[in-house]
Protein 1
Amino acid sequence: MSSGREAALLWLGGFALRAPLLAVPPLLPVIVPALRLSHTEVGLLTGSPVILFAVAAVAGSLLMARLGVRRALAVSLALTAAGGALRGVGGGAAMLFAMTVVMGAGIALAQPTMIALAAGERRLGPARATGIYSNGLVVGEVVAVAATLPIAARLGGWGWGLAVWSLPVAVAAVAVLRPSAGDAPAARRGAWWPDWRDPTTWRVGLLLGCTSAIYQVSNAFIPTYLTATGRVALVAPALTSLNLIQVAGSLLITAVPALVGRAGAMVAAAAVSLAATVALVALPAPVAVLAAAGLLGCAASTIFIQGLALPPLLVPREEVSRMSAGMFTISYACGFAGLLVGGQLGDRLSAPDAPLLPVALACVAAMVLAAGIRRPEADARCDVAAARHA
């Protein structure tokens, strides 16, 4: 398969794993009154996929060990497409919740397989391949948030607004089954379970967990912070800046794959994230708030993408799936914990910026964790060569 076609598949796979997930928040103002959902039910609807990401990632490694990368990915994407398309059937809450669980399980299974697919890219190089996949993730988030509500209005209901995002998932599921040289099982039989005693798995998992906490907590509590400080008009622009400018981070890693695995680059990005968090709270000017939010999203996304690309650089190819499963389990658990801590701080402390404290702490922790990453020089040279011949 040509490098261009493989790059398109990686990008589409990333897009397909985020667009169906991010289609829900824009439709909540329509879904909540239509189904009479409580705040708890809304929390379950938006939070259940995140919990599944942590729980089911290991099952994705097992699936690869049994079926191979591409077949496992096709099964995962088919599950995602089916769940995403059926969420609005019947227009009831029971089907919405049940199919959201099915969709979340499919995405959870697919995530480690996408990392393994990128790890096997010899023409693009693992770092550039992961950058392309991650760019698809980010663009999927932005496009779904921006386009879902208008699409639902045009198609005649929130169910159709959710179902439409299963189309690119189904296309990706079919495309990934095209034969490719070297498509072997991603892990040796019996080597699918993460090695929880491996310090590298924990270091990379916690590094990704820090970026997950930064992203989840920022999206959840920047609106409450701005509202509490009397700047409600800045909520939508700040969230747009936070999420949209992530695209720049993904493009940077795609263009300069040699940055992946460089401790200095990751420490610098974490430092920029910390500075942006402080500026967001300390600088009252609207333009400063929007710039700080955008810088925070861009810097955090570069750490996230580099973390995704680390497994094929740090362990043999046959170990990538089990390490990826372990790091996803750790990272999403950290993101969920960050939300809980931020919420508790907001409830217990009177300061409006208290819920954002986990963001600052995660930035500091990311600097410490990134400083211990050591990328083999041979892999760095391979990625540079792949970039020159792409």
Protein 2
Amino acid sequence: MTGQGERRDLLIVGGGLVGMTLALAAARAGLTSHVVDRAYPAELTAEGADGRASAISTASWNLFGNIGIADALEPLGCPIEAIAVTDGMKPGRIDFRPKPEEGTLGRMFANRDLRLALFAAAEGVEEIAWHTKAEVVERERGPHGVSATLADGRVLRASLMVAAEGRQSPTRDEAGFSLAKWDYSHRAIVTALTHELPHEGVAWEIFYPDGPFALLPLLDLPDGRHRSALVWTVSEKDAAGVLKLPDAVFTSEVVKAMHGVFGAVELAAPRMSFPLKFHHSRKLADHRLALVGDAAHGMHPIAGQGLNLGLRDVGALVEVLTEGMRLGLEPGDAQLLARYEKWRSLDAFMVMSVTDGLTRLFGIPGKLPSAARRLGMGAVQRMPALKRFFMDEARGMSGKLPELLRG
């Protein structure tokens, strides 16, 4: 990757999963970029640095195919063959299982494997100037372009600045974008488990009043042990205690919450925890600035759509900019940014509203709300059209899809 000094089309602040996907998608469309990240790639891909896994929807997988990383990722992902949704493992669950000819509901990948594939694909791409272990100390957005001054004195210039730094985006905050936000007062405890019985590609979403308990299928280990990712939502006041439990006690609580569906369980990764908060930026674009990914919207992990929403941002932004270039417009053009904002604002808000509503609906304790939920779930189970709607949402194939995500 060359081009440290010249002006480029994009200045992407944040080189994580969304930021680097954007750089690669933009490069395929002939757009050049500076990518600035505070970390070294080796720090982000070290064993144990990030034990999280992500569900990659069908639409996001199409995007990975179109930017050339699907072949490298194919053997590392576990297909999601079905999703089981249940209210505390009581009768009346919903099973989402597509027909064989329809393919899977997505794939589960370790975040580390996604990063390794993205970073390997970016190596040697002339359109991408990658600045690692770099701190942005000053940002400017002028009438004719943008710039970022790094801590070592280098100045990077481009037509459009893109904030891809995640939830705590300094670029977004410095621009004065206001957020609709609230705290769920819960934490997600994340780890990986090995278990006695095979998961058969089923993702489990078990709702309890304290929060959802999700088991997500991962590929078996080389020695044949079955493996799943766990995302267990607990109240903030209980989180510290749950994290301190001895491994044997923690796994027994996991088996209890799972009602033994996977048999005996062992921990396969360290336990990590993350506070659960909702935020949605009231604006997604401003003068020569666009937000993508968690800088724009952060949601509850209940439906596993956070990363997929960010990848839809990537597809939409690249499509808008590419069409603008054909008309002779530069990437920082206000008309293009207005179109991006209009396209993504409604879609992101709809997905996040449904997710937030589910979180609140299943969090209402008591026998009567539980009975009402199970009645509703039973109705969905019996209505093919409604199940099809939910499966299309899970695949990310609903709404106005960017071309890069259509396959």
Protein 3
Amino acid sequence: MIEFYKPIIKSRRKSFWLCGHKPYLKLRGKVKTIAVHKSGGGLGDLIQAIPFFRNLRYMFPNAKIIYLGLYQRPFCDSIFKNIPYIDEYIEYRMPGNESTFKEYFNFWKKHFNKFDLLIDTQSKFPPGFWLWLLNPNYFLSRSPFFSHWKFILNSKKKLHIAGKMLFLLQVLGLENIDLSPAGNIEKSYLSFTQGYLNKFSGPFISILPTAGHPYKMWPKEKFALLADKFYSLGYKIILAGASSEEGILKEVAEIMKNKPIIPLVDEPRFGKDPIYSASLFKSSLLTIGNDCGGLNLATFAGCPVIGIYGPTTPTKSGPLGNKNIVIHKGMDCSPCKWFLQNCNMDRKCLKDISVEQVFTTAKELLSKLNFQFEKRGRFPRS
């Protein structure tokens, strides 16, 4: 019996003094501008931050919300623009050398005492210090030295990355958390993708055989065998990834007995703009892949996913949503003690995951989802 992945997003202990109060309700009339400092702006980082910004918007519906930090530009521009809870982006680098100190000083002069509420999602001393110097009216940080609200965050090792961010909103009184990472996909993207996929007969399953680091990748041969098993049941396989990963996608296709669909080969925009990839996942019954940004992109599109995890742990970075499954051996050396290099276990954490295990899990998930959604006409029968 399959079990959906449920990330841990709530700590057992809140602030010392909260006691059921909701400080954010008192702040609503005072806070007009909110800046959120967020480090790590890759594809997966942005998508896993969506629940934080969605819940922050719920708490402060009339405030201007600013993303303060860096994200991967220009690749993630379309994703960023399709997060409706962020009103503005301000590029910010923490000072570390002579040039960045000058940059920070100019930033400080421009934004000193300009934010009603500044939220630092990091827990280290240096980021908190430089942001505290901006003199916001209210400062909320996981660094206890500077935050106006003092609290203890228990169970750090068990909390999901999104949970650590959302805990800050719990400190302000948030109770009912919306954990959905779903974002907007403009009709123009969906129409283009539908027109492209009309050349093939579905139903479709998307596979992501790549990852940001090769040590996180399940063997290509296993992905190829898995894809052929789906073909035997009448599904069509979409191999998806970024333009830089085209070579790996073609290698998987060459190993396969059946010819998969590789959209970025036919239409390069599928490999350059994540929203086009998201629209592919929107048209898929299921997405299967490694721990990578693309897996999170599928959850952004509302597509159920099966994540294959080895050296990384799904406890902290598993896919958000309520229809997802992770396959993870949970070995003693995971998360990887060799920092994804020089593994003396020959990547046993990934190689021990069999094709049959993933295939059986996928069949069970598809069966369950078809049962749940068939009445709504969302998924075609397989």
Protein 4
Amino acid sequence: MPPIEIKPNVYWIGVNDRTTDLFEGLWPITQEGVSYNAYLIDDEKKAIIDLAKALKTDEFFGQIDQVTDISKLDYVVVNHMEPDHSGVLTTLRRIAPQVTILGTEKTRAMLASFYGITEGVQVVQDGETLSLGQHTLQFVYTPFVHWPETMVTYETGEQILFSCDAFGSYGAFRGAIFDDECIDPVFYEREALRYYVNIVAVFSRPVLKAIEKLASVPVSVIAPSHGLVWRKNPGHIVELYRKWAEYATGPTEAGVTLVYGSMYGNTEKMMNAVAQGISEEDVPVSIFDVTHTHVSYILPSLWTQRGVIVGAPTYEGSLFPPMVQVLEMAAVKKIQNKQAARFGSYGWSGGAQRHFEQLVEPLKWELAGSFEFVGSPTEEDLRHGEAFGAQFARLIKGDGETG
């Protein structure tokens, strides 16, 4: 995609990445892709805000060249040091050695440790402004959204918030970068939620602090480092992020995440009965097979929904290992204070329930019930499973208890 003018002399110069399989080496984006959004202000002084991953160096520099001579750049604003934002920096400095790098004090330290860059670095203070001519930049510290050095940059005249990782999403662009030109906004909203839970959710408190800090700032465009540029309704993505951040400690949605794993199909049979019971109570249920679904896609449901039912067998006296991995990642992401229950099969001895309870204890999940069965479920077992699902659904609605 060629550079796109967002406002007069303010350009999106980002690149799409449909090559990388794992974002941060961990989260799948093979199907979705991701954009590395960067922006160029072509004024008396020329500034780039945010950069791109090193594997996109040639393409990224080609974007700059379509707007201005890269060797004439004056400033590079590093809102965030993570290498998907700063990876081209070393090469850029070779081409434009005169460029001044702007960032926080912590950014200066990271520039030295990541890239050995110690010269031509200028620390900007929280609230400090910089005139480029017709455009003025203001720098606002937003620590731990989502690294300690992170800041956002605000263009005061056109009221553009270059928000870095805040308000971002997975998803490469499909020919349109703006929210009002996107033909599938639901895709980007879904990927924004997955991005939030995978990347930012641990820092929900700093996200809310940042939103509050910027609440009085008039914003006409939100230009994040990944995902759509919001110009028609920038407040929409802010409110989504606010809602998701509040889920960290506040009420979540009245739905059930049913995660299961089955070695030989016995636990899966029971899962279908439990799901039927939940559905009979008109409670939304999202079902994930942990042996086929990467945890990246499970975490958003766990984050947003109030109830969790785990269906997993005993494996060598412990919980089925793929389920253990999901629960351990839920702990890493601090998915806490859920209503939970578990069912599963065993062959000759149990042990999975005890292991399950140990895993969820630090998450402060309230255990509302459990049951186990030997081998393949009987018809009576399946009826019990259906009732179990219905009882749990009523609990989630607030009008019943499990047993």
